[in-house]
Amino acid sequence: MCCCCCCFITEKLSRKMSFIKVEPSSDFSFHNLPYGIFSTADNTKHRIGVAIGDQILDLSVIKSLFQGPILSRHQHVFDQPTLNPFMALGYEAWREARRTLQVLLSANEGTLRDDVSLRTRAFVHQSAASMHLPADIGDYTDFYSSRDHATNVGIMFRGKENALMPNWLRLPVGYHGRASSVVVSGTPLHRPSGQMRPDQTKPPIFGPCKQLDIELEMAFFVGGGNRLGEPIPIHKAHEHIFGMVLMNDWSARDIQSWEYVPLGPFLGKNFGTTISPWVVPMEALLPFAESNPVQDPEPLSYLQDPDPYTFNINLFVSIKGQNMVESANICKSNFKYMYWTMKQQLAHHTVSGCNLRPGDLLASGTISGPEPESFGSMLELSWRGTKNIDLGGGESRTFLKDGDEVTMTGYCQGDGYRVGFGRCTGSVLPALQH
């Protein structure tokens, strides 16, 4: 195969089948091809892989097959322990890589299909792999972009008449989080300790959080960055969005409610954030783009963009307690419920001249919809602890208990295939002694 022809691959090719068997229910269809970082027992080096079906294609083994005009000069990026160097190459390099992969994995292409030795070295079964953080995350920003979530929380704490703050409908509200405590799916986290004030008539106390919560979120990795002082215009924002992951923004609600005035979350958020290991490229998600939400009042000009960049991604959250045989689903939501788009978030983040770098992580904020079953946090599902969340078998929750395992999943449903994100899982360990 002449991979330099990869730039001329048509969308028709992407609809053909791969020689790798993929079940219709698999998250990792030929239409997906997400990137991740993995290792194996016999090769502990962290390396870049692409998921398809139940297999991982090791790009470090086939790096010489990337012979397009950009990647032929940068094949070394596929031999790195993180995705950062690849993401730094920019939008056209990502597109070239995807087209090359579509050719190599196509049922009509024999380069991998017919070379038994190369296939043996290049493919690893997912069950034999350990997954790692996909990037070296330099900075992490969390937005607050679901109108339903912001309204629900506002009603709980300020009342219906003052649910949304005056700035919320004017700009994508966000805060800078803690990049060092972002962990990959499967990493357990200790219940945090901190100051709380459960009785407003008494001084604060110190101890383990009693209102540990989850937040159903998604996040995107920044690819090509921008120079300090040079904003990214919204019509160019898509060229800086590499791909998306699922995210659980664990939250200590009682710590957060005491500390957050006036500067926002601190210890209530910084103890851990979990992301799924596979980064789904934006090109795989574009067929599932929908019209952007109607925004009233109309945003300022730097936030206006007519191109659809809202995505129909089905999202689910389940909890499995220590005494439970099976997980219980507590939430069914959708990314399309978001009010502010990723392009608006990126444009707003950089309009001040803030420089983003490859590997920076920007999160959506809790994804809640209009119906109670679509609320993306236990704070909302239990309505600040006043309602029990039924898990079945006599189990219920208002907030998380030690030993609980939380799993988030998500996928776009195509015609006989899925573009999914795998699992974003984490469990709660007891608080450390102080």
From TrEMBL:
<dbReference type="InterPro" id="IPR011234">
    <property type="entry name" value="Fumarylacetoacetase-like_C"/>
</dbReference>
<feature type="domain" description="Fumarylacetoacetase N-terminal">
    <location>
        <begin position="31"/>
        <end position="134"/>
    </location>
</feature>
<dbReference type="InterPro" id="IPR005959">
    <property type="entry name" value="Fumarylacetoacetase"/>
</dbReference>
<feature type="binding site">
    <location>
        <position position="269"/>
    </location>
    <ligand>
        <name>Mg(2+)</name>
    </ligand>
</feature>
<feature type="binding site">
    <location>
        <position position="366"/>
    </location>
    <ligand>
        <name>substrate</name>
    </ligand>
</feature>
<dbReference type="GO" id="GO:0004334">
    <property type="term" value="F:fumarylacetoacetase activity"/>
</dbReference>
<feature type="binding site">
    <location>
        <position position="249"/>
    </location>
    <ligand>
        <name>Mg(2+)</name>
    </ligand>
</feature>
<feature type="binding site">
    <location>
        <position position="256"/>
    </location>
    <ligand>
        <name>substrate</name>
    </ligand>
</feature>
<dbReference type="Pfam" id="PF09298">
    <property type="entry name" value="FAA_hydrolase_N"/>
</dbReference>
<feature type="binding site">
    <location>
        <position position="215"/>
    </location>
    <ligand>
        <name>Ca(2+)</name>
    </ligand>
</feature>
<dbReference type="InterPro" id="IPR036462">
    <property type="entry name" value="Fumarylacetoacetase_N_sf"/>
</dbReference>
<feature type="binding site">
    <location>
        <position position="158"/>
    </location>
    <ligand>
        <name>substrate</name>
    </ligand>
</feature>
<dbReference type="InterPro" id="IPR015377">
    <property type="entry name" value="Fumarylacetoacetase_N"/>
</dbReference>
<feature type="binding site">
    <location>
        <position position="249"/>
    </location>
    <ligand>
        <name>Ca(2+)</name>
    </ligand>
</feature>
<dbReference type="GO" id="GO:0006559">
    <property type="term" value="P:L-phenylalanine catabolic process"/>
</dbReference>
<dbReference type="GO" id="GO:1902000">
    <property type="term" value="P:homogentisate catabolic process"/>
</dbReference>
<dbReference type="GO" id="GO:0006572">
    <property type="term" value="P:L-tyrosine catabolic process"/>
</dbReference>
<keyword id="KW-0106">Calcium</keyword>
<keyword id="KW-0479">Metal-binding</keyword>
<comment type="similarity">
    <text>Belongs to the FAH family.</text>
</comment>
<keyword id="KW-0378">Hydrolase</keyword>
<keyword id="KW-0828">Tyrosine catabolism</keyword>
<protein>
    <recommendedName>
        <fullName>Fumarylacetoacetase</fullName>
        <ecNumber>3.7.1.2</ecNumber>
    </recommendedName>
</protein>
<feature type="domain" description="Fumarylacetoacetase-like C-terminal">
    <location>
        <begin position="141"/>
        <end position="419"/>
    </location>
</feature>
<feature type="binding site">
    <location>
        <position position="142"/>
    </location>
    <ligand>
        <name>Ca(2+)</name>
    </ligand>
</feature>
<feature type="binding site">
    <location>
        <position position="217"/>
    </location>
    <ligand>
        <name>Ca(2+)</name>
    </ligand>
</feature>
<feature type="binding site">
    <location>
        <position position="273"/>
    </location>
    <ligand>
        <name>Mg(2+)</name>
    </ligand>
</feature>
<dbReference type="InterPro" id="IPR036663">
    <property type="entry name" value="Fumarylacetoacetase_C_sf"/>
</dbReference>
<feature type="binding site">
    <location>
        <position position="144"/>
    </location>
    <ligand>
        <name>substrate</name>
    </ligand>
</feature>
<keyword id="KW-0585">Phenylalanine catabolism</keyword>
<feature type="active site" description="Proton acceptor">
    <location>
        <position position="149"/>
    </location>
</feature>
<feature type="binding site">
    <location>
        <position position="260"/>
    </location>
    <ligand>
        <name>substrate</name>
    </ligand>
</feature>
<comment type="pathway">
    <text>Amino-acid degradation; L-phenylalanine degradation; acetoacetate and fumarate from L-phenylalanine: step 6/6.</text>
</comment>
<dbReference type="Pfam" id="PF01557">
    <property type="entry name" value="FAA_hydrolase"/>
</dbReference>
<dbReference type="GO" id="GO:0046872">
    <property type="term" value="F:metal ion binding"/>
</dbReference>
<keyword id="KW-0460">Magnesium</keyword>
